[in-house]
Each structure stands twice: as C-alpha cells, then as structure tokens.
Design brief:
CATH topology of the largest domain: Cathepsin D, subunit A, domain 1
CATH class of the largest domain: Mainly Beta
Number of helices: 2
Helix content: under 10%
Structural class: mainly beta
CATH architecture of the largest domain: Beta Barrel
Mean pLDDT: 90
Shape: globular
Number of strands: 29
Number of domains: 2
Oligomer: single chain
CATH superfamily of the largest domain: Acid Proteases
Length: about 375
C-alpha cells in the first residue's frame, strides 16, 4: 500500500444484503439443494481526488467490540497489499487511556468497551520512499462489524492493530486521528504481529464455501470526489463456481517463515520495448501510480511518457496491458536500490478492468480480464 490518503465521509443508504444457504424438500420428491452461494455480499465506497487522480476504495466499519458508531462509520482503506486491520484508538477507547507515549494498559492486558488491549507494541509502516507513514500502537482483540446500514456482517473476536498515533516519516508531523485506518486483506500475517491476519479470513463458513473473497471490476463511473456507495463490490466466501468455473487464472502463492503466504506473483514485465523478470503486487491500496522495479534502471526514478505501452505476463499465463495517459495509468520506473523494494506494484487502476480473487484456504490468487 502506498501513501495518499483521502478523507472518507460515509453515506448511509440502502439495505442489508446477505445471502444464506437454503434447502427445500417435499414428501415423495427428491431433495433439492441449491447451488452454494457466497457467505455475504457487501458494498464498498469509491472516491477520487481532485483532478481525477488518486482513487480509493473504502470499507465501512461500524462497530469494534461494544463501541458502536453506526451513525457515522469509519472508512478503512480496502487494501489487497497489506495484511490485518489497523484502526485509531481514538473513539474506541476512553481518552484517559491514550497518551502521547502510548496506550495505558494495566497488567498484561485490559478489556474496555469489549476490546482487549495487550501490552504487545509495534510500529506499522505504510508507503515507500516517496512518502511513508508510521503507526504506533498495540495488538488488540475484538469482534468487528464490517459494513453499515447498507449491509453488514460481524466477525468473531479477532486480532487487530490499535494505534494511538500516526506520523509522517518525512516531516515528523503527527497526522490526524483515523487518517490512516487500513483494512488489509492480503494473505499471510501482519508484520505488526504474527497473530494478525486478514479480517476476512476469520469467518466460520459452510462446508462448501471456501475462505476468501472476490472483487468484481470496480465501477469507474462511481469514483467521485465524495464517497459513493457501490453495492455488491465485495463477495466474502468463495463458491465452487468462483474457484472452478468462472474463468479466473489461479496463481499459487509462495511461503516465508516471516510473513506467511505472499501476495507477490512472478511475472514478466514489458515496457519501452524491453522485458524484465519481476514479482508483482496487485495493490488496491496504491491510489494512483504503478511502480515498476528494474535493477538495471539508470535513474532512481523516472516517469514513463504519455502513450507508453506496458504489459505483463504471469508465470501462470495471465496477461494484462495498458497505455499511459497524463492523469491515468501513470507509471514510474524505480531502481530497487533507491526504493528499497523489489516488487513491481500495480495500483488500483488494475482493478478497473480486471477481477481479483483471493483463496485463503488453498493459498491462491485468481486474476481475470474483464
């Protein structure tokens, strides 16, 4: 996930959308079992910055523990590039517990407002050399209500990262409360704590539903300067049809002892007539520029010119291509010695023309052109 956070103003309209399994039968007739359906379908909020630059998608969170804010939910960046939920403690814990030096916890842990805060502390960093933010906080546990009056589901008690301050690394300035709440849905575990994983991975599902989620293509027309609710933007729980008959190209994920399963996918990247090997992160939390990492680049960072052609081909045969324009699909090339990151990061623009699926159970990412 890269920096460039936009203010979220939740909109409360619509109705709950939850699809549950049903079985019907009648005497002397065979039992009819309908096709499996997703555990839940929720909407996301879409927003864009001024000048048609900087897209964001947000997911509403309307309750943590017993602390409800349904009338004005928090908007968390929906981020396929990081793992775990991070949220500011302000508004969730009593103000007396939050100081400039940390969250006050008596003993090993304390439970307030249905939120158990531990003494395990960490610092979570988002962004790259062009702008980093750091969150300071504690490992905590609580049930979380995802969604709002338009539709919601509640997790069991899950681990989250509760931060008490967020700092701009470049300036050293402390940022406003809740300016970087993140809903990280990537596989693996958080670098803040190995106990923290994606909030979407904790639901108890039916036997024929696989743990994971699917993102249909984002609705480009709904990206406005004010957050716009788009129903059915997130499918939680994967059906056999999602996994086997919907045309996704599946990519098995690699494993490391530190972070668990990685969302990075081995690919060949082509631009300016040259092809280079690399690993790609498809990152809904990067709001604008795609960043290609090339160890042979002669400059720390350059921006490809307008009308440059960029394409990728993954090791599993998924292909994607686009042409840069002045305010869309802007693409930079960086040398990893400068960026300190070997991954090529495709921004949220990828999700405007491609579908994305993450299978937590079988450790796979599915990609599909639309």
């Amino acid at each position: 996930m890269r920096k460039n956070y936009l203010k979220f103003l939740p909109v409360l309209t619509g109705a709950l959308i939850l699809v549950m399994l049903a079985v019907s039968c009648k005497k002397d007739r065979p039992v009819v079992v309908p096709d499996p359906v997703n555990f839940a379908k929720l909407g996301l909020y879409e927003q864009i910055g001024t000048g048609n630059v900087g897209r964001r998608i947000f997911i509403a969170v309307s309750q943590v523990g017993t602390q409800s804010f349904a009338a004005s939910p928090y908007g968390l960046v929906f981020d396929t590039g990081s793992t775990g939920m991070t949220i500011d403690a302000n508004g969730l814990l009593p103000a007396s517990m939050i100081t400039s030096s940390g969250i006050q916890v008596a003993g090993d842990s304390v439970t307030v407002n249905g939120i158990t805060v531990t003494t395990q502390q960490a610092i979570v960093t988002f962004g790259g050399v062009d702008g980093e933010t750091q969150e300071y906080g504690n490992l905590a546990y609580a049930p979380v209500t995802i969604g709002d009056v338009n539709g919601s589901v509640t997790t069991p008690r899950i681990p989250i990262f509760l931060y008490y301050k967020i700092v701009d690394v470049t300036t050293g300035k402390q940022l406003a409360a809740h300016s970087n709440d993140v809903f990280g849905v990537a596989p693996g575990v958080s670098f803040a704590s190995r106990f923290i994983a994606s909030p979407l991975s904790y639901f108890k599902l039916a036997d024929n539903i696989t743990s994971g989620f699917r993102l249909p293509v984002l609705n480009n027309a709904s990206f406005n300067t004010s957050p716009t609710y788009v129903p059915n933007s997130l499918y939680i729980g994967l059906t056999p049809n999602d996994l086997n008959a919907s045309g996704f190209v599946m990519h098995p994920l690699g494993y490391s002892a530190i972070g668990g399963y990685s969302p990075n996918i081995t690919s060949t990247i082509t631009y300016n007539g040259q092809s280079i090997p690399g690993t790609i992160l498809f990152d809904s939390g990067t709001p604008s520029n795609t960043i290609i990492e090339n160890s042979a680049a002669t400059s720390n960072m350059i921006t490809l010119p307008v009308n440059a052609n960029v394409s990728i081909l993954t090791g599993q045969g998924f292909s994607y291509q686009y042409t840069t324009v002045s305010n869309y699909n802007v693409t930079e090339v960086e040398n990893p010695s400068y960026s300190r990151d070997n991954r090529t990061i495709f921004s949220i623009n990828f999700f405007l023309s491609n579908e994305y699926l993450l299978d937590y159970t079988n450790h796979r990412i599915g990609l599909k052109n639309n």
